[in-house]
Amino acid sequence: MIRDLTIEYRKNPIGIDEKPRFSWKLESEKQDVVQTSYQIQVVSGGQLMWDSGRVESDQSVLVPYKGAALKEMTVYQVQVSVWDNCGELGQVTGNFETGLMREENWNAKWITHTLPAEETACPVFVRSFSLDRPVKRARLYATACGVYEAFINGRKTGDLFLAPGWTSYHHRLQYQTYDITELLEKDNEITVTVGNGWYKGELGFDARPNLYGDRTALLAMVRIEYEDGETICIGTDTDWHVETGEILFSEIYHGEIQDYTKERRQVGKAVLFEHTDDIGQIVAQESEPVRVTKRFDVKERIVTPKGELVFDFGQNMAGLVEIRLPKLMGDRLVIRYAETLDKDGNFYTENLRTARCTDTFVYEEKQVGMLVMPHFTFHGFRYICVEGAGTETEASDFTACAMHTDMQPTGTFTSDNTLVNQLQSNIQWGQRGNFLDVPTDCPQRDERLGWTGDAQVFCGTASYNFHTALFFRKWLRDMAAETNPEWGVPHVVPNILGNQAGAAAWSDAATIIPWTIYKVYGDKEMLAEQFPMMKNWVDYIHARVSKNGLWQSGFQYGDWLALDIESGSTDRTGGTDKYLVANAYYAYSTRIVRDAADALGYAEEAKAYGDLYEKIVEAIHVEYVTRSGRMVSETQTACVLMLYFDLIKPEFRNRILETLELNIGAHHNHLTTGFVGTPYLCHCLSENGLHGLADEIFMKEDFPGWLYAVKKGATTIWERWNSILPNGDFDESGMNSLNHYAYGSIGSWLYEKVAGIRCMEPGYKKIRIQPTLTKGMTEVSATYESIYGTIVSAWSCREGKICVDVQIPANTTAVIQLPEKEAEFTVGSGRYHYEYKTDTNLKFEKYSLESTLGELVAEELGRSMFEEMVPGMLEDPLIKFALSMTISDLLMQDAQAKPMYLAVIDALNAANSKL
């Protein structure tokens, strides 16, 4: 009846420093089940710390601990009892362990090394100690300026990578807690290797080193509790000594060099680290750590036309490769990484820019067969090129290890359309590859920064796919720390780009992400924590408006990478007026702050920002909308922003919608939107009675469209709609990541509009189920593991019948509106099945008279039919001018060709329906 007890969003966490909140889920096969009361008991060492008593309430999410003060480094047992309206009692148990809680509890000192500045080998801090009694419990608490891995007696502590993670080091630095009880022996050695990582390593567009400091450092403490109750601590100090080991070089962008022919070499004693004033508050691990979450065997062994030995893992990802060292032909094994092969089948690395993305291993014959892996780097790759290995090297020697923040999967979306299913996989793998401690823009080239714009457009989709509460809370705390009145909200967080004035859509992450996370999880405490930053961003803009009340100065990204720029232009900001974009977001963020204040009970601020919002909307109308309802900028993105953000007066909505529809039609029902317009385009159309048009845009398989990349073999989302051109060439802008999640924001449309799972009250306490029939898919099923439990919406429409299956978790309610039914109705928890007759046919006719000639001849069948019916037609020099024209346009010039075109269209549709 009760499952998934989480404590501050985690199961049985150790090393937490915040007062915890408890959540649980009710389960029942019955309908209309709700919780009527709960009781929470917390015990430590046999002593009752808190008994809530039986509380008459349906609250089952984020119930705060209200007992006696928690002690540091202490284990607490938790029991939750729940009664429901069916008279049933359920119980669940768990535990949590506090961390150090205060910095004065560190029985350790910061230490560093005295290696010369030119030395690239990673320092290894070493300490030996002996134990004389049985151990009850042992913990390692550790952090570093850099990234570290700890070993006890040669065995790694935990399964984390790149700890302590990337934070705004001058403000905040995380530490981790490890259970090392089972690793201890009578005589012990602890070794902690520290790599440059984000702290000292090369970072940013110019790959500058030492952005936070010029020397790595370590703070660590082993705490051992004997069975007899005595406790000892072994902390870092000048009794530790420093060695160098097999890691001779390690950089995030460039990879790692390991030399197993070198012995460990002691290079001196540890010295105290003198720059502790440059380190911010030390806090316990706030989000899930980075782990290896999936492993891939080689899918194909390839010898390229250039003679390169290449292995294909079949999936673009971020991570590392584990290697069983093969026999060498020379003196070292070199592994290079790439996302793709070029059109000739050769290894392609030009889109990596200056990132070398190379791992090198030096070893002797006796070490052949040893398992090795890099430690302090990561790569964006699908392919590896192996150099220096013997001809007998086997594919089984290499295993790809996908790494990312270990968020729990929450959502699934499947259909009977294989291209759409692959797109959904691409969206999720784009998130996996880029949610690596911070939301990076790409995992492969010399960038990998926490761009705020990318994160805010994708956060809704991200929270359907994975549990994001802790991931975003940790990152938002850094954003808040680096926000200030002079510069606003940074473009990247942590901010390594220096002082840049805040920019619309990017800096609006400060309002959009906290509000989105509040709606997904109903976490008022998190919303209240971020509310000052949310206000500060709106206040920052308000302080810079012109006399007309609008923000019309300073740098803006506009609709980044939109396709509606003038031919030949290199401007990446798109064709939409940049300040229209800025002010649409100004209004949107102000409305969010108003709503957040209202949710938090801040009546005075709710009124103030509500009044400001009304003034902004009116000023936008004066500046950008004519008296007859035309807009100054009538691009797709401009129309979408004005409609989706509800900035248009009711009497003008239809005209703006018609303008949007005409613009889309003028582009043969293709999108022209960039980073700003794309996330909202299909949502906007579906919400305004044009779901069929949204569907047609979504289903396009040529450029530009989501399925174009799928048809080109993509396994992640691309940075550009045509990162790979139809002829196999690559975009040469210098910005061409093949793992760049922003355009994956279409995922929320699949969940919310196609499958119809929508949030009506924060945390999905109340749910709307409103699936929308979508051509090209006759069967859809989506699940979402909300904080209350599993939500399911599945439908099919075929052979004259619609079937809908719904599952609503206990302790919630849902409003259901079935496809092709006007009435809506409310249900409680349970499973529901509906079926009824329909005349709707969702068979998708991919080709029509509105298809271009280029689309028809792009298919081998279409090309062969034209060549058979009109020999030489496609060799005519003038044909290149006709390829971009629709068949309807061509028939206006030659109506007698209609039977030929219809024959090709029918044949292609028939062939497509068999796929």
TrEMBL record:
Occurrences of domain Alpha-L-rhamnosidase concanavalin-like (ranges): 304-404
InterPro entries: 6-hairpin_glycosidase_sf, 6hp_glycosidase-like_sf, Alpha_rhamnosid, Bac_rhamnosid6H, Bac_rhamnosid_C, Bac_rhamnosid_N, Ig-like_fold, Rhamnosid_concanavalin
Domain Bacterial alpha-L-rhamnosidase N-terminal: 135-293
GO function terms (MF aspect): alpha-L-rhamnosidase activity
Hydrolase recorded as keyword: yes
Keywords annotated in UniProt: Hydrolase
The keyword Hydrolase is assigned to this record: yes
GO biological process, one term: carbohydrate metabolic process
Domain Alpha-L-rhamnosidase C-terminal: 756-829
EC number: 3.2.1.40
Gene3D superfamilies recorded: 1.50.10.10, Galactose-binding domain-like, Immunoglobulins, Maltose phosphorylase, domain 3
Pfam families according to UniProt: Bac_rhamnosid, Bac_rhamnosid6H, Bac_rhamnosid_C, Bac_rhamnosid_N, Ig_Rha78A_N
Catalyses which reaction(s): Hydrolysis of terminal non-reducing alpha-L-rhamnose residues in alpha-L-rhamnosides
Top-level enzyme category: hydrolase
Domain Alpha-L-rhamnosidase six-hairpin glycosidase: 410-754
Protein name, as recorded: alpha-L-rhamnosidase
Organism per entry: [Ruminococcus] torques
